[in-house]
């Protein structure tokens, strides 16, 4: 693509070919997941591009036999707790770093950047021991607290971008009109930063929704699994029930995709600086 | 997307409270000064407490643990200091040098190279497309990005599953492999090739979208001038696009490097990746297996520290890059 000359022939073939290649590479795994989930003979599927039939039996199976409803609920609870706490804490912190000049401000920002780089595997061992000592293993609260911490650095970076784009004059005008700081926060700052807050919340939710390592390590009672871990039970060492694996994978993936498509226009400024990698 | 971190934000004006009262009441001014001093810290406090308690403190603990033999006795953990034994064992083991580190490093660089290259190509493609196709492609990219690492990994495993997997069957029917006997996951070459495919599929959208945002900031006149000078597309890319949005490339490369060094889920979930096949260990998996499967928390912690040190070194580069773009950014 980079070398495409201005010759019409090259771009007439090259561009559509590139588009088709891109669509195949990005969407084929998604298609394969969903169509396997719907295929009644999923595990015998082989190289058939079309499913042998359409049925929802694997979905019924994961709910009836696999307890997947509970796992989805657990994920939703943990996700919501993470959203609320992370967005609130991050908003305060973002206002502090975007609006005020103070000593050690740069140091705080660097610290936030650095903790974002810490590998989860380094944290999982001590946190496991810590959580065990406080009897917080197998607890949705314990897991939520970890996810709040995991999503905070990115949320602060993101919101900081949003807060910084709000013109200072808007706030000053509110001050001149005699508004107090809390009042200014509620009626001026919060509405303006709302899109950023929505984006941050969704990213915090996705962090919690997708996370595997901590949920897998901390949650050992099967009724406390999150959805991402719940799939693991259908995944056998020697024989895997691909229908249920793909049905539960679809249930975990599709809500996230819908979120992404809805919010991608609102993500705007700061998001490019962070990540949503699992 | 104009003012990303990458392209530089408008300079934040130094905050000033409302103008001091004209009378110059000393007490009021002092009070205001105190508020100015403490307010940012009050706002930061909750976040800092959470980050310190759940990220920094465990990091210190893992350092301490790496110097100990840790055993679970009577329901509680007991650590005995052993100095740098775990590190010297780790750093002299051939497993680390022959398997774990090469797997980690080669895999990370392959993923970064392919992710950035593919992401850039797709960004250039998006830049050339009309509104409708750009929209369609963007949504497809978002789908790949939104696919959770866990479910994405299951799909790739399913595609490459010995015997039944689609790729295995197609490769078998073309005569490339014998699908009855070939298991892609038992050897580290194919194992990591599949993991790379998975990580690139999940990771290139971020690069594509960020680079595309960067491309939009390049003035059209530059390309027109380049064309007038007779530069071909390749020359225009190297001499105009790359230098103009170099900071974007730097940041996506460094971020990808950091992410790809700590890939865990995608490796752990692949058949054999959970520790049953030593050949395919990477640093993260090795650390995890030592701690949780072998109950050797000390060695696990030492490996975790090693990984952290590697990542911190990369992070320093990242931060320096950010700073070089102008301190007012931070």
Write a structural description.
The complex is a heterodimer of chains A (278) and B (330). By secondary structure, chain A is mainly alpha-helical. Chain A has two domains: 9-54, no CATH class; 59-275, MetI-like fold. Chain A has twelve helices and no strands. Chain A has helices spanning 8-38, 57-64, 68-99, 105-117, 120-133, 140-165, 168-176, 181-210, 213-218, 227-230, 242-263, 268-271. In chain A, helix 3 (68-99) packs across helix 8 (181-210). The radius of gyration of chain A is 23 Å and the shape is globular. Chain B is mainly α and 330 residues long. Chain B has one domain (84-329): MetI-like (MetI-like fold), CATH 1.10.3720. A two-stranded antiparallel ribbon of chain B has the order 1-2. Mean pLDDT of chain B is 86; it is low at 1-12. The interface between A and B is large, with 111 and 118 residues. Chain A: The chain crosses the membrane at residues 12-34, 71-96, 108-129, 141-163, 184-209, 241-263. Chain A: Belongs to the binding-protein-dependent transport system permease family. Chain A: Keywords: Cell membrane, Membrane, Transmembrane, Transmembrane helix, Transport.
The termini of chain A sit apart by 30 Å
Would you state the CATH class of the largest domain in chain A? Answer: Mainly Alpha
Order of helices and strands of chain B: HEEHHHHHHHHHHHH
The biggest sheet of chain A amounts to:
none
SSE pattern of chain A: HHHHHHHHHHHH
Number of helices of chain B: 13
Count, helices of chain A: 12
Structural class category of chain B: mainly alpha
CATH architecture of the largest domain in chain A: Orthogonal Bundle
Supply the CATH superfamily name of the largest domain in chain A: MetI-like
Percent of residues of chain A in helical segments?
Answer: over 70%
**Poorly predicted runs of chain B:** 1-12
So what's the overall shape of chain B?
A: flat
Level-2 CATH architecture of chain B: Orthogonal Bundle
Task: Look at the helices and sheets of chain A and give the structural class.
Answer: mainly alpha
